[in-house]
């Protein structure tokens, strides 16, 4: 079994305890320990002496993506009981998107390449999951620094609504479109960093969808899809870049069509209906993702055929409902 031990300062212990309590670990009591945490393939114990012991097949990955960037906030030194070479995080690419769940606005997909030398800089910039940053101003501040300081490591792809709506109809699945877009930004970064061994993305569909969309350049890369991938620094940086561009695109759309386009998928109908009554149903193809069921609801409310824009009827899910006992 893989085992790593490392002494933690009081501040590092506090960060570890918070991480275990907030990140879905199964907590447990261990003799002479402050706290124990468990996940599949991973056992973590923080002893009262301040010594951290990590065991399991997921040990090395946990060191790379949690211990170093989030707990220690530095690269482990050679004084650790495991070697510096083993702990040093490898170069990799993170991918994330913004706008997938928003009725209005495009889909924005971003990727960020992180070499070992960038970890400390990302932490200093405050890079973390964009969903945990409530201020658009702060998102802009971090994104602009990433784009200014490390432009070659950033890749941002805007899937405008004409193209997006067309691709969803053609491919028949939002996840297929998303996989194609992920593969596109990954290929573009690999053109600049061809020796990158690994890429990390959030889990949104079958892994083979991205792999099959990759061209020759990306065929040999190890792709990891996992839930809550934004805890990875590269994915977190990508999420900030994607959200920053999405906010910009939403502002441009609002200015272009002289209307307020709210984010999200709820409470958007009044704005959409106002637009359709003013400019006609075709306006939705320019400002919204027409496969959302909201499209049919808006068209119906405005007196139009709900299938006018080729929007599919809602899937019948009645066969999933439990039969009532007589």
Written description of the protein model:
- The chain has 326 residues and is α+β, with helices and mostly antiparallel strands.
- The chain folds into 3 domains: 3-87, TATA-Binding Protein; 92-252, Nucleotidyltransferase, domain 5; 258-301.
- The chain contains 12 helices and 10 strands.
- A 5-stranded antiparallel β-sheet has the order 1-5-4-3-2, with helices on one face. The chain has a 5-stranded mixed β-sheet with strand order 8-7-6-9-10, sandwiched between helices.
- Strand 6 (92-98) and strand 7 (107-114) form a beta hairpin.
- Helix 1 (10-22) crosses helix 2 (59-72) and helix 10 crosses helix 12.
- It is elongated, with a radius of gyration of 23 Å.
- The N and C termini lie far apart (54 Å).
- The model is unreliable at 75-88 and 317-326 (pLDDT under 50).
Question: What is this structure's SSE topology?
Answer:
Elements (H helix, E strand, L loop, with lengths): L2 E5 L2 H13 L3 E3 L4 E7 L2 E6 L3 E5 L3 H14 L11 H4 L4 E7 L8 E8 L4 H7 L10 H14 L4 E6 L1 H11 L2 H19 L5 E5 L4 H7 L8 E5 L6 H24 L12 H11 L4 H4 L5 H9 L25
Parallel strand pairs: 6-9, 9-10
Antiparallel strand pairs: 1-5, 2-3, 3-4, 4-5, 6-7, 7-8
Helix pairs in contact: 1-2, 5-9, 7-8, 10-12
């Amino acid at each position: 079994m893989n085992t790593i031990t490392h002494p933690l300062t009081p501040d590092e212990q506090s960060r570890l305890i918070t991480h275990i309590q907030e990140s879905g670990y199964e907590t447990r009591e261990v003799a002479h320990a402050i706290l124990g945490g468990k996940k599949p393939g991973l056992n973590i114990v923080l002893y009262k002496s301040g010594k951290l012991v990590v065991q399991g097949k997921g040990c090395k990955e946990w060191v790379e993506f949690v211990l170093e960037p989030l707990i220690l906030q530095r690269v482990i030194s050679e004084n650790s009981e495991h070697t510096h070479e083993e702990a040093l995080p490898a170069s990799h690419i993170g991918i994330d998107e913004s706008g997938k769940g928003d009725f209005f606005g495009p889909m924005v997909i971003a990727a960020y390449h992180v070499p070992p030398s960038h970890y400390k800089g990302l932490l200093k910039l405050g890079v973390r999951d964009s969903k945990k940053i409530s201020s658009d101003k702060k998102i802009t501040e971090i994104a602009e620094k990433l784009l200014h300081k490390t432009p070659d490591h950033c890749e941002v792809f805007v899937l405008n609504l004409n193209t997006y709506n067309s691709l969803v109809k053609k491919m028949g699945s939002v996840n297929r479109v998303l996989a194609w877009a992920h593969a596109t930004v990954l290929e573009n970064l690999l053109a600049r960093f061809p020796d990158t061994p690994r890429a990390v993305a959030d889990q949104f569909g079958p892994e083979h969808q991205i792999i099959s969309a990759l061209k020759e350049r990306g065929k040999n890369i190890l792709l990891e899809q996992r839930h809550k991938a934004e805890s990875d620094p590269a994915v977190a940086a990508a999420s900030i870049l994607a959200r920053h561009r999405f906010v910009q695109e939403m502002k441009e759309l609002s200015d272009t069509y002289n209307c307020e386009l709210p984010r999200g998928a709820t409470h958007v109908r009044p704005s959409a209906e106002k637009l359709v009554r003013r400019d006609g149903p075709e306006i939705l193809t320019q400002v919204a993702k027409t496969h959302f069921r909201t499209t049919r609801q808006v068209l119906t409310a405005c007196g139009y055929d709900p299938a006018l824009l080729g929007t599919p009827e809602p899937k019948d899910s009645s066969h999933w409902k439990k039969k009532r006992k007589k």
